[in-house]
Amino acid sequence: MRVEPPVPGRVATSSTRPLQFAIAGLYALTGVYTVAIALWKPTWLPVTYSGAFEVGSFIAAAASVVAVIGATRRWRWLYNAVFVIYGLGTLALVVNLIRLATGGASAALSAEAVAFEVPGAILFAWMILLARRGLGPWGMTKPAG
Question: For residue 102, how many C-alpha atoms fall within 13 Å in the half-sphere facing its CB?
Fold first, then answer.
């Protein structure tokens, strides 16, 4: 019986921990904000939708908790999901900036969306930069040898 040597995992770089903490921090902030809004019960929300809004908010908060845990544990699937989410968020940022500039839709809601989309767009750009440098998920590199 032949035993294969274990395949070495990826090695953390100087970008790994800051990227992890930035993504975990943004998701922690988003989760807290989502729960606060659900408990605050916005006055613009019709009473008939209140329960669904609260349930949806707590589901989003639970997803934020999963994202924080996944970022600290460097889950590869989460990195890929976050990459797609931040990419789509960057496109939404462009749309919301156009809405703010032209006065379309609700300016207050667009401004709030922009406030959360800007950090996501910055992290998306950071993730692209790391990929262009040949680094894998979470800014990690393959071991030498």
Answer: 8
